Amino acid sequence: MNDSSKYRRRTLLAVAAPVGLLLIFSGCGRDGGREVQGNVISVRGTVTIDSGKESGSHPQPVTTASKLSVGDRLETSPDAMASLLLIPGIFVEIGPSAEIVIRELRVQKLGDAMVDAIKSRLATLQLNHGVIRASLPDIGSGRCELNVQTGFGTLLAQRGALISMQLTSEAVRVICVDGEVRWSNARGGPVDKIPEGYFRDYRRHDGSGNEKPRLRSVSEDAEAQADVAAALETAAAFDDFVLRARNAPAPKSSHPVKRREVQPP
Fold first, then answer.
1. What is the CB-side half-sphere exposure of residue 264 using CA atoms within 13 A?
2. pLDDT tens for residues 3-39?
3. Does residue 212 contact residue 203 with C-beta atoms inside 8 Å?
């Protein structure tokens, strides 16, 4: 990864850390935190969402006004992409011809007030096919974790990680662009660590769960290098979004304050 690009990313996000992004709570639990809804940052092409909560429901077009909830299934057409803010601090881009299901969006705070600090942020996705890229900026405090489940295993990314992940019917490629990620094989065995600048390919016929695919440097593979470049562009776009949100004017109140009339002496 280019050091100047990494420095820019971390510096911009450190500056933009105070940005306030609305959390919409859809459930609560004092110990386990509260279930929240995610937001759509941008959409290109045809992207659909299916909540599956009502019988006979049909997929609906995704727009920047859409709210994302647990159980939602999102699918992109071959020329489409969508950028999502699952939880403040967890950004995901869905590439073309991809499908994900949101399994968990949960936040735990240090208190019940809106101004209280967030203690933990947890998002879990199921990737059914296609490419996703995820950015978890190295800002803030507390636990920040993204899990991506597949039929091959589960990826765990934490604060400071930037990843690219591609799933087909025969294999899944996990690239760590920044930070470090962990991979738990669905067939068991030890947890794999994938450091910054490296990737692993997990194939359906690799053998037993104890056989670990070779850890490879991104510099060895042209396709992996292209994936890294795309992930860096994605992270830069998220940086720009955060800066725009931070610099946006405060919304006007829908309830104007009435001035008290002063009676002349």
1. 0
2. 544 534 443 443 333 334 455 555 555 556 889 999 9
3. no
Pairwise pLDDT comparison (247 vs 159), residue with the higher score: 159
| Structure-token pair, residue 156 | 């765990």
Q: Which CATH number fits domain 3-247: 1.10.3470.10, 3.30.70.260, 2.60.120.1440, 3.30.360.10?
A: 2.60.120.1440
Distances from the Cα of 145 to the Cα of 102, 104, 130, 142, 237, angstroms: 14, 11, 21, 10, 21
CA angle in degrees (0–180, nearest 5) for 83-133-218: 150
How big is the chain by its Cα radius of gyration, in Å? 20
Matching residue, tokens 């850890």: 215
Q: Which long-range contacts (CB under 8 A, 24 or more apart) does 184-192 make?
A: 184/153, 184/154, 184/156, 185/152, 185/153, 185/209, 186/150, 186/151, 186/152, 186/153, 186/154, 187/153
Q: How far apart are CA 49 and CA 56, in angstroms?
A: 14
| Under 8 Å between Cβ of 200 and 214 | yes
What does the mean pLDDT of the chain come to? 83
Please list the residues that pair with 142 across neighbouring strands: none
